[in-house]
Design goal:
The complex is a heterodimer of chains A (736) and B (213).
Chain A (H helix, E strand, L loop, with lengths): L5 H8 L6 H15 L6 E7 L10 E7 L2 E7 L10 H10 L9 E2 L12 E2 L2 H19 L4 E5 L6 H11 L4 E3 L6 H11 L15 E5 L3 H4 L4 H11 L2 E5 L5 H6 L2 E3 L6 H14 L5 H7 E2 L1 H8 L4 H8 L3 H12 L4 E5 L10 H14 L33 H6 L11 H6 L8 H6 L5 E5 L9 H9 L3 E6 L4 H4 L4 E4 L11 E3 L2 E3 L13 H11 L11 H9 L6 H6 L5 E2 L31 E2 L3 H5 L20 E5 L16 H4 L6 E4 L1 H6 L7 E6 L2 E9 L7 E4 L28 E7 L1
Parallel strand pairs in A: 6-7, 6-13, 8-9, 8-12, 9-10, 11-19, 13-14, 14-15, 20-24, 21-23
Antiparallel strand pairs in A: 1-2, 2-3, 4-5, 4-15, 16-17, 17-18, 20-25, 21-24, 22-23, 22-25
Chain B lengths: L3 E6 L8 H10 L9 E7 L4 E7 L8 H5 L5 E3 L5 E3 L9 H5 L6 E2 L28 E2 L5 H4 L6 H5 L5 E5 L6 H6 L2 E3 L10 E4 L3 H13 L1
Parallel strand pairs in B: 1-10
Antiparallel strand pairs in B: 1-8, 2-3, 4-5, 6-7, 9-10
Classes of the chains: A alpha/beta (736), B alpha+beta (213).
């Protein structure tokens, strides 16, 4: 292998990230030389991080030595197949642009070129620990913000790091724009998080709201929904887009105007109450505020609802009859899509009230809640197990959360912090350092304000696979993360099944996220809490809850390990005291009932009924509504553009979905360059006239660095969730 | 001897592109070359989009075989039509002869020019794509020979692709053959890939009736 002299390296490093590719090439070629024909092809196993969804899909791969050669679905894994993004992960491993060693900036922040140079891991850790100790001493531990973006995999280890360091301020992409908004609404309403359940054998109708499983969960939810359709289950699909879910499943497809969810739900409930299709006994006994709800929805006649939502009155009536008249009915909601507007919390709560008034909650075939969630997880595996994450210590420090005043209901219900007001937190000196795994500045509306704020931090670092200028130009240090084929942690949890991984050695000097977090912890002076930097030992510490260890997962890796359930499957668990921690009958809410009127929202002076609130108004100047971030099957956020050219080839540039009639009115044809603008910003993109979107709505994927749609989204936030209006901004489209 | 074919069920294809990527990963096709393509057909009247997976039809009477001047294309005994890229001279006659416009010339470019990509080194023969030579779907003959399904079929999350032996009366593909239709059948190519038309038209009509009642 030809040597790169230090001087030669500094010369190329001076011109910034693009030059890094040159030396990367050498590392890849060396790896390539190891892929000798002499190595026997062996199987390996890992988990996909392609979409940042959890539970993850299983990948079986083949390796020669430490070279991954090809991949296929993991036979027998709970996810039956893979998706396009998963196949794309192969191309990511040996991408010449991967970051393969730690780098620090040498030019001051604000310089056009950060002047990144290669450093050793020792130097990187010394710098990080030096800054952390100094900042903790000077400003207090809570001014260091710990963050996990995409992938979610490092969350568990990073929370342990934050807690041990002594900062309560840990946040992630879920507590910024993804899952935690809807989750908050669910906890406020039912007392626990749920996006519904797959249709069971008793299910007769399904309500699918704002989610498109063939693109977001092709290997799990979608399989069950297709089977249910075969069985004759009736489907109401609510989605402003003309998705394959609507085309393939819907008996009735409602395409509402954006940010009118609460009005549409009220309209549906109006019909259900008026026609006596609701479950009177359940409503009387188990819904707190049922009278207020009934009273509230009285005004939402089908005609008035049509006026607000654009959904034909007749369809609203039909949908209510189909769903409420064919019980039990299941529900599948989006983990986030319905919360991207200024009434996010109550919009989502309104949806949840529909199956509730029908009495479908936790009945067989309804919105089922698992009887036997894996003990010790305290919710979804992606959040991390509470004991390992030191959630109790974090809870004791709650008063120091930076988001307490801005979003009190959100702050009360979540362990992770809402980050949308990071600009203010930094300006006010409440955050001084930012340690990030998988940070993407484009997650925030008015991205440039966050970039600017980050420049004034005393220290920031980011772990990533690639150099992403829109983020890394604004931090002090970038560390090379190992990709999914090179990670041991975390292992996978599907229900009560556990699966391990058999990774290859990382390329270059990359390290897996957990290892980086553990090693920082060790150097902060806590070798025993961070298992001396041993990732497998950290996993074993979690696995011991279930009486197993990683070695046991490896024994029959393809089959995994099943932790047997403890109780027989039970429904209506609220009747028998199986839902609340205190063992009393009822729901785990303050009132012990499903809360149409939320006591937590009331306490914080927020709107307690799931009311409709008109948001941003269209005008003659901005007559269309922007739906940003509608799922594209082969893209997640800003991933899978340059990361895997196989995928980029499917759509090499940002495309604006616009209804053919709206396009024709503006003289816009397929492929025309257009200006998409709102009151807050504009981008130039190519137009794609398509009936995927309805009249009056235009759609575009977020995360394109050269056409960042979040520049059009204002920094206004729903008071309950803290979410910005990604899906309701009034815009105009003009032929460029 | 088997006679392999494929049915594409347009009722459940969602346009998720998994088949396109499963094929890329399996066969390491060149930039811009997709042996598996997905067309989007929009019907504004029905307000519905149909996704159509398109690839080599593995015709029983393949015009490309006759057209090739260097005899680089052949039909195996099991019906799979293959291009031998080593024999191909890049004359493009197969491209002109194919009524479905399937074969494409491999470009010179690579995804990562100038970089040796480890999984491309010592790759199995079926993953070696030669620049300037015609290429197309092989129905994953290398997998079929081992008793496996083509990569796109294995990958499809909606099970919209049904693979099997058209001569075996008990095979799943034969069970549904009556529902399917060959494309451009009048060309006399006898394609072994056929399509089940979507019921969307019916569902669309039903919705219109309900809306106008």
């Amino acid at each position: 292998m030809p040597k790169v002299t230090r001087r030669a390296f500094m010369k190329v490093a001076g011109v910034g990230a693009a030059a890094l590719a040159l030396s990367d090439r050498l590392l890849v070629s060396r790896a390539g030389a190891q892929a000798g024909a002499q190595d026997k092809e062996e199987a390996g196993y890992t988990i996909c991080d392609g979409c940042n969804g959890v539970p993850f899909c299983g990948i079986k791969f083949y390796r020669r030595g430490d070279i991954v050669t090809r991949i296929e679905p993991w036979p027998g894994f709970p996810t039956a197949t893979l998706c396009s993004k998963a196949y794309g992960t192969l191309q990511r491993i040996y991408h010449p642009q991967r970051i393969k060693y730690p780098m620090k900036r040498t030019k001051p922040k604000g310089s056009p070129d950060p002047g990144y140079v290669r450093i050793s891991w020792d130097e990187a850790y010394d710098m990080i620990v030096g800054h952390l100790m100094r900042i903790r001493e000077k400003y207090g531990p809570h001014t260091v913000f710990f963050y996990v973006g995409d992938p979610k995999e490092p969350r568990t280890a990073v929370q342990r790091l934050a807690a041990t360091f002594g900062s309560v301020n840990y946040g992630d992409e879920s507590s910024t724009a993804c899952r935690k908004g809807a989750n908050t609404a669910e906890v406020l309403t039912y007392g626990y998080g749920t996006t519904g359940s797959p249709p069971g054998k008793d299910t007769r109708s399904m309500l699918i709201w704002g989610t498109n499983p063939p693109y977001s969960g092709p290997a799990n939810d979608w399989q069950e929904l297709l089977k249910a359709k075969e069985r004759g289950v009736k489907f109401v699909v609510v989605d402003p887009r003309n998705t394959p879910t609507a085309t393939i499943l819907a008996d009735i497809h409602l395409q509402p105007r954006l940010n009118t969810t609460a009005a549409l739900a009220a309209g549906v409930m109006h019909v259900i109450f008026k026609e006596g299709l609701y479950d009177e006994a359940f409503c009387a006994k188990w819904i707190h505020g049922i009278d207020e709800l009934k009273e509230y929805v009285k005004a939402f006649t089908p005609e008035k609802t049509e006026e607000i939502t654009w959904v034909p009155a007749k369809k609203i009536v039909d949908a209510a009859r189909l769903y409420a008249g064919n019980g039990p009915g299941g529900m599948k909601t989006s983990p986030q899509g319905t919360t991207h507007d200024l009434n996010a919390g109550n919009n989502h709560r309104a949806i949840l009230m529909i199956p509730a008034i029908c009495g479908y909650i936790d009945v067989a075939g309804g919105v089922e809640d698992p009887t036997n969630p894996l003990e010790g997880l305290g919710g979804n595996w992606s959040n991390g197990p509470p004991v390992f994450c030191m959630r109790k210590k974090m809870n004791d420090m709650r008063e120091h959360r930076v988001d307490n005043k801005d979003f009190p209901a959100f702050a009360e219900l979540n362990f992770d912090v809402q980050t949308n007001r990071m600009v203010e937190y930094i300006k006010e000196g409440r955050v001084k350092a930012f340690l990030a795994w998988g940070l993407n500045m484009m997650i925030w509306p008015q991205t440039q304000e966050y970039q600017k704020a980050f420049e004034s931090l005393e220290f920031s670092m980011a772990v990533d696979f690639f150099y992403r200028p829109w983020t890394h130009n604004y931090v002090d240090m970038v560390l090379p993360g190992a990709v999914n084929y090179e990670r041991l942690a975390p292992f996978a949890v599907h229900g009560r099944k556990l699966f391990g991984r058999m990774p290859v050695k990382p390329v270059g000097e990359c390290k897996e996220d957990w290892q980086i977090a553990l090693e920082i912890g060790v150097r902060l002076g806590h070798p025993e809490i961070f298992f001396n930097g041993n990732v497998e030992a950290a996993c074993d510490d979690i696995l011991k809850m279930w009486g197993v260890n990683y070695a046991a997962l490896r024994k029959d890796i393809e089959k995994g390990v099943v932790i047997p359930p403890k109780k027989p499957n039970t429904y209506r668990k609220y009747e028998v005291g199986m839902m609340r921690q205190d063992g009393k009958p009822g729901f785990p809410t303050p009132s012990g009932k499903v809360e149409a009127v939320s006591l937590i929202l009331k306490k914080h002076g927020l709107t307690a009924l799931p009311e409709y609130k008109e948001g941003l108004k269209t005008s003659q100047e901005y007559p269309l509504i922007l739906l940003s971030g509608g799922r594209v099957p082969y893209i997640t956020h800003s991933k899978w553009r340059d990361d895997a050219p196989w995928l980029l080839e499917l759509q090499p540039q940002p495309l604006l979905d616009i209804h053919p009639d709206d396009a024709a009115k503006r003289g816009i044809k397929k492929g025309d360059e257009v200006v998409l603008k709102s009151q807050w910003g504009e981008i130039r993109v190519k137009a794609k006239p398509t009936i995927l979107v309805r009249h009056g709505i235009v759609g575009i994927m977020h995360g394109w660095s050269k056409a960042n749609v979040n520049q059009l989204v204002p920094r206004q936030f729903d008071p309950i969730t803290g979410y910005p209006p990604f899906k309701e901004v009034p815009v105009q489209v003009i032929k460029a | 001897m088997a006679r392999y074919g494929l049915i594409v069920d347009l009722n459940v294809c969602t346009g998720c592109m998994t088949c396109v990527l499963a094929c890329k990963q399996e066969n390491l096709t060149k930039p811009g070359i997709q042996w598996n393509k997905v067309l989007e057909l929009e019907s504004p009247t029905l307000d519905q989009i149909t996704y159509v997976r398109q690839a080599c039809m593995h015709c029983d009477h393949p015009p490309c075989v006759e057209a090739c001047p260097s005899k680089a294309i052949s039909k195996r005994a099991d019906g799979i039509v293959l291009i031998d890229q080593k024999k191909c001279t890049g004359s493009k006659t197969c491209i002109d002869a194919c009524p479905y416009g399937v074969p494409r010339l491999n470009p010179k470019e690579d995804y990562f020019p100038g970089n040796a990509i480890p999984y491309e080194q010592n790759a199995a023969p079926y993953r070696i794509q030669l620049a300037g030579k015609a290429s197309k779907c092989t129905l994953c003959a290398h997998r079929v020979d081992k008793g496996k399904e083509p990569a796109c079929v294995e990958g499809c999350p909606s099970k919209a692709l049904i693979f099997g032996d058209l001569d075996d009366p008990k095979s799943p593909i034969r069970q549904r053959l009556w529902q399917s239709k060959q494309l451009l059948a009048e060309q006399g190519t006898h394609p072994k890939v056929s399509y089940i038309a979507p019921k969307n038209a019916f569902r669309g009509s039903e919705q219109k009736i309900l809306e106008n009642r």
